[in-house]
Design goal:
The structure is a single chain. About 35% of the residues lie in helices and about 20% in strands. By secondary structure, it is of the alpha/beta class. It has two domains: about 10-40 and about 70-245, P-loop containing nucleotide triphosphate hydrolases (Rossmann fold, 3-Layer(aba) Sandwich); about 260-365, GMP Synthetase, Chain A, domain 3 (2-Layer Sandwich). The strands form two sheets. A seven-stranded mixed sheet has the order 1-7-6-5-2-4-3, with helices on both faces. Strands 8-9-10 form a three-stranded mixed sheet. Helix 6 links the parallel strand 6 and strand 7. The longest helix is centred in the C-terminal third of the chain and has 18 residues, at about 325-340. The chain is globular, with a radius of gyration of 23 Å. The two termini are about 40 Å apart.
Length: about 375
């Protein structure tokens, strides 16, 4: 087993699992360094002739064109990276940590992510297009079927698949849910990597035994123990992207961080506050739709509707004297202001839409497309 420089693996930690000799063929990266901060912005012009044509055009318009021509590295790499796993294993937290900013909502509750959130990580030498997917679970309704479909679609499209899990309860072993997902990944071993998250919450022996048990159940290409919350071990994942992504031109403008429209992100931040503020089953039966998004000189105005299945849920969301709705709006507004970098006026209303989680037409209207 190969560890980062300066770390030693106690052989006793591998008792009752795959032997040290067997694991020596599997690379385990275990650095606990802080993630690099800041994005590297690069402008690519495909060829010198294009630059010359642009310059000629601008001169004809009486304008001066000043561009820095930066040749494309022949070994530049770019590709799609799917973050998959059970609900609540930290996929969105990892996405936000790698990007260095928040674009995906997080909560201690499972099944927070519903849509596939795309984040663009541009670094010197590579661009990783990160797909934060909903947690894979057994669908209970049409909504769940569609959102789990997003995760399966991402697996098919991805150049790399990062399978997120957390250290095991060693007495119970790998859960049936994890086993089902690993079966889904059969035949993809050459592009599937294990990311064991939340290692800061467990003893090193538990972490190492969990790594061994997961690798006994599935032949991961490499394994990465990390803490997305504390940004431990993320440097090794960045290094992986630079090593194994396919040679390609950038798939997105390096200035971009996500393909999600601002109004969609605004709706997600409102839904995040519903998860954080409400401690019952209510958040799983709500959808947030931004109906108007107006940019003004000194602020952005947003009008959004929270759709819920039951009249009783509507009353809880609004709260006594509108207090709960106000708290939800205040929390969401602060997140949206951080995202947009400007003042935000946020107007929220609650509407009962009975049966929307099973209604294909409503689901499509609310942004949950059927793939």
């Amino acid at each position: 087993m190969v560890l980062a420089e300066g770390l030693e693996l106690p052989t006793r930690c591998l008792q009752n699992s795959r032997s040290t000799t067997e694991l020596s063929q599997h690379k385990i990266l275990y650095p606990f360094d802080s993630i690099r901060k800041g994005q590297i912005n690069r402008a690519f012009i495909p060829c010198q002739s294009l630059f010359e044509h642009l310059a000629y055009f601008f001169r004809g318009q009486g304008l001066k064109l000043t561009l820095t021509l930066q040749a494309m590295d022949q070994d530049f790499k770019a590709g799609m990276v799917a973050l998959i796993g059970r609900p609540n294993v930290g996929k969105s937290t990892l996405l936000n940590a790698l990007l260095g900013q928040k674009i995906a909502i997080t909560s201690h509750k499972p099944q927070t992510t519903r849509n596939r959130i795309l984040g663009v990580l541009s670094e010197p030498g590579f661009q990783a297009v990160l797909l934060d997917t909903p947690g894979i679970h057994a669908p209970k309704n049409e909504l769940h079927r569609r959102i789990v479909g997003y995760a399966h679609q991402s697996i098919e499209e991805a150049d790399l698949v990062m399978y997120l899990a957390e250290p095991l309860n060693l007495a119970r072993g790998i859960s049936p849910e994890d086993k089902a997902i690993l079966e889904r990944l059969a035949g993809l071993e050459e592009r599937v990597f294990l990311v064991l998250n939340k290692v800061d919450e467990h003893e090193p022996e538990t972490v190492l035994k969990s790594l061994a048990e997961f690798n006994q159940a599935y032949h991961f290409k490499e394994s990465f123990p990390v803490s997305a919350l504390k940004k431990w071990g993320l440097e090794a994942i960045l290094g992986l992207f630079g090593r194994v992504l396919p040679v390609s031109e950038p798939l997105f403008d390096p200035e971009e961080v996500t393909d999600q429209p601002e109004r969609v992100l605004a709706a997600e931040f409102v839904r995040e506050q519903l998860h954080r503020q409400l401690h019952q089953e209510i958040p799983y039966g709500v959808a947030v739709v931004v109906e108007r998004f107006k940019e003004e000189k000194d602020r952005v105005k947003i009008w959004a509707v929270i759709h819920t299945e039951k009249e009783s849920h509507k009353k809880i969301i609004i709260g006594k004297g509108g207090l709960m709705l106000k708290q939800i709006g205040t929390g969401a507004r602060k997140q949206i202001e951080n995202l947009l970098g400007t003042k935000v006026y946020l107007d929220l209303h609650v509407k009962v839409s009975q049966g929307w989680v099973e209604d294909p037409t409503r689901l499509t209207q609310f942004g949950y497309l059927d793939h």
